Structure formats: structure tokens, C-alpha cells
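Handout, section B. The chain below has 674 residues.
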Amino acid sequence: MNTPTREHRSPVLRRVAVIAGLAMAITGIQAVSANALPTDPETTISITFDDSNADQQAAVNILDSHGMKGTFYTVSGFVDAPNYLTRAQLTAMQANGHEIGGHTVTHADLTTSSATEARRQVCNDRATLLDWGFQVRSFAYPFASVNDAARAIVSDCGYNNARGLGDVETRFGCAGCGFAEEIPPGDPFVLKAPDQQDSTWTLQDLQTTVINAEERRTTATGWIVLTFHHLCDNACDALAISSTVFGQFTDWLAERATTENTHVRTVGEVVGGAVKPAVSVAGITPPAPGPGVNGLLNPSLETAGAGGAPQCWQSYGFGTNTPAFAAVNPGRTGNVAERMTMSAYTDGDARLMPVLDLGECAPTVTPGKTYSLRAWYTSTAPTQFAVYLRSGIGTWQYWTSSPLLVAATAYTQAEWTSPAIPAGSTGISFGMNLISTGTLTTDDYALYDTVGAPPVTGTPPPPATGAGPFVQKLYRDFLGRAATAAEVDRWSIVLAAGPQTHYSVSTELSRSDEWISTVVTKFYRDTLGREPDPAGLAGWVQAAKAGMPVAQIAAGFYASPEYFGTVGQNNFGTWVSDLYQKLLLRAPDAAGLQGWVTALQAGMGRDQLAFGFYQAPETLGVRITALYQTLLSRPPEAGAIPNWSPFVRDFGDLVLAAALAGSAEYNNLAQATP
């Protein structure tokens, strides 16, 4: 791509250059070259990144390769979460000269938050970052949303500057605004910057923005603050720029330090000022709801908020799906309820829930207590409560989900009592979700401390049937233990969402590391009469994951020197007799025993013989019968053994176990199990 053509300097800059040139001539200083005039007024570029996205690490690497340093505006509540930068990465960035700035705790819009919530968001974010060891002087307004109140809060919380967006002219807008911020800035708490860089920006757009600041500004000093969010090469986000374009831009920019007196500096370096102490606002977090008090604000969704959602509520979700939210009239009570329509679904979920904030909307909770979560709903698909918790520093994380609830054609009250709130948690948010296509309408939410909670109105809906008992039986039969609540939740969601079936779930579970460990541990106990040693277990599990058939693993155990020495007493006859007992469940016939002993004495390997026994038609019948008894509590039906034997021989017991566990008969047994 061609570099944009240089434009003529403005009259102001020409006069500056002439005066500086005369001074050089008088003192005898020589110009370096025609293209690298020290008389060029300095232009400063700051490269900033918002939101702490994990792919910004690639930008750090590119900047470091040029000795350039950026400013990274950090949402402290996102740090260490999936797809975001870690605290360790941020620490390494600061150690290498990059600036860590603030961007609120949860990326809150300060102009739509109350003054109390806005102060929590700004001051607590900075206090956390300072506590983590970062020298925090610079702030960026989320959504570039700023008013006088927000500006004052940022200043009061100890920042030295704050960046806006869209106040410098580019081809994307703000015609007549001027081509650069000045140094020092006219208002350090609303720093002027071009529009944020996104996928529509080209290399030429970035270069032109810099050249305009060098050539067309009307001030003696010029400063461009560029704003990026994502760096990736696969169109990962509308606010992404490719690493190729970013690399080409920094290559080009590096040369301009000598040719144009244009330098890259962090925002904090440009504005300056000492790092101020943290400002604590911990005491303004609202208390947890008392006995009998509904802890939710706007629980009936009647008060409208910004962006179309009810006040204090917001739509959330994850995964690949297509939800649409809309207010419907009338509600169960009052004029409004909220309807979510999931028109397409692959995975994940979507839900309406109280805003994930620091206390303005999301209720406070007390560790150790349990809470009653309630809502009225109608739906065409199963639904459940999805629950999130807030930590002491404002980080939100998924915690748990209720059992699935059946679809309901008329308004039905859902109620679920949470587990005890974990230590360190300060807030809660929850909503009813969809994990499949369908429609869900909700109204009249409530959150009560279970101590003093009012009685539930009406008959609670029954849990969606099938998933919990099926998962528990599957775990008992395959892994020899009960499934945890989280595991039941996970598979219940998978089964309710589709396209997974009982068969595909049992297949996936039987391929897990835990199942492989269970199988190998059983071989240790059955053949060697002991628990596995850690190194031995790890070796067999790794071999199985690499593709070793179970039959070969079994042969390895039965043919091992330990088994031959302890059980077989180092005697071929004793060893072969034990194989008959273990694998065929009978004593050897005399001719068969003698034939195998003769073969071993002639040089047949023990592993070869053990493998043959394990895969013999008679042994296959024993194994198939055992699987039927274990999983279906009955012997195989007529014809099952000859029909399944080739599959079990060629593909292992897994194929039959998954098929039996995926059957309607198995699920019926699970539902009947107390």
C-alpha cells in the first residue's frame, strides 16, 4: 500500500520552522538531512488499547519489537477471566514500560449510572489496580460517554487525565474539529482523540491521521491518541484490526522518529503528574436485603431503562445463538413483562438479569446465607435460573444453575433455593435462561434471604424430567461414583439444548480421562490385586489416549511379569489356568490347557496368548453378558451376543456400553432408580 502523499505545512508550522532554522544558522548547527529536519515541530502519538482483551498481547509483542510503549486501559473486573488479559500479563507489560490505565470495574457507562455507582466504578477500579502494583494515572471513559459529573468523579478518584473519542477529524467524522490534540491539552479530563479504530480502518487511514497531525494542525504541538480494542487476523470482532495492518503501521511509524520528529509516548508520559493515592469508597456498598425484603430493584420490570431494557436489567448470554428481547403488554401484573425469543441455537444461553454492577442494581448478599430466587414465567422450552456472583473487587463469574424446569403455557412461579453463598462474594445476579430455540416470558422476579422469606405462591413447576437420574446412573455405572451437582447441571443443559442424545453423552463420558483411569484401575485390582502406582496409571492412561485398544491394555496386565510371578507363580500351567478362570469364568479343559502350555514352551509370548484369550469368541460373550447385566440389569436378548461380538472385538467394549447406556431402556431404569 502506498504511503499517503505529504501535504503542505500550515502557515503556523512554516513560521515555527523558519524561526528555528534561523536560530540554527546563527549558531552554526548543521541540518541532518533534507528529509530529517530537526526544525520539524514534534508530533506525539499515543497508542492505547481498551477493555483488557487477551488478543492485545499480540500488540504488546509488536510494540516491544520497536521499543514503543502503549497505554492499556484496564477493566479490573475482567482481568483473569477467559478471553481477557491476566494480572501476570499486565504486570509484565508495566515492567517493560507500558502504561496500565483504568476503565472502570465492569465497563460501566458513567453517564447512565447513579453518582454513587459511578464513583464505585471509577474509584474501586483504580484502587484495585494500585493494590496490584500498577502506577495508575490515566483513565478512558467506557463507550466514550462523559458529562460534567463523570469528569468530576474521575478527577476526584485520583486520575490525572481521561480520554474521550471522536473529537479529532478523520475521514470517519468530526469535520472541522482539528487534526490533533495539543500539548498540554486544553482539558486533561476530556482528551481529544480520533474515532476508535475498527475493521473499517485501513493502513492508509492510520497513516493519514498521523500525517494530518504533522502537517495540518494549527497548533505548535500535536498529539494523536489512537484507540484500539482487538488485534486478530480472522475478523474476530467489529472493533478488531489485523496484526498485519498494525505491524505495518508501527513499522512505518518507527521511521518517522528520525524523518519527521514524530514519537510514540504513553498518555501518562504526555500529561505527566504524580501517581496519587487510592480513594476508597468501600463504605457505600448497599446492605444485603433483610428478612422478608425483596432485594431486587424494578422486580416487575415496569420502569423502562436505557437501550430498551427495563431499568436495572440487561440482556446477557454466551455462545452461538440468536436471542431477541422485547417488552410485552400486559404483564402478569402491571403493564409489562419481558419476552425472549431464541430463533436459532447452537450452544450457550441467553437471559435477562439484573445489571452486573457494583451495587446500584445487583443486590448485595452475605456469605454463608442461602437465598430464595423467584420469577413467574411462561415458556415453550425448558428453562432454569442461571446465577452469577460478584467478588470483593467487583469481578463477576458464573456460579451455578438451578435444575431445569418444564415449559409452561400459563404463568407459573419458579422458585429455587441457592446453596450457601461462598466466602468472599458480595453480590448476586440471576435470570431465567433459554438453552434451545423457543420463547420465554418472565415477570415479577424476587430475591429473598431464606430466613424470613414469604411463602411461594401457587404450585412450583416440576423439574424437567430425565436428565438428572440419567446422569447419576451413567456416572455410577461408568465411573463408580455419584455425579456432582455441577456435572448434572452441565449434562442436563446439553441434553435439553440438543442435538446431543443419551447415546452421544454416554459416548463422550466413556472417552474421558476419568473413564480411562477407572478402566485401568480396575485392571490393576482384578489382575494384580492392588491399587495402581501413580506413574503406572499415568503411563497406561497416556497409552490409551494415544489409541492403544483396551484389549491390548488387558493383555499387558495379564502377561506382565508381576501377574505371571504372583498369580501364575512363574508356571505356565498355573498362569493359563487363571486366564480361563478370569476371562472365561470356567476351569480349563485338559486338552486346551496342555495345548496352550505347549505353545508357550515353544516360544509363544504371554502377551500374544493373553490378547488371544481376551478377544476369543467365548470371552467376548462373557464381556457382552457382563455389560448387559451391569447396565440393563438383565442378560442379553437372543441373538445379541453374535450380533455384538464383531463390534466389541474390533472396537472394544465402549461401543456396546455407549449403545446400551443411550437406549430408552437404560433411561427408564434411571428414572425408576430412587
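Note. The CA atoms of residues 621 and 642 lie 8 Å apart. Compare this with the example in section A.
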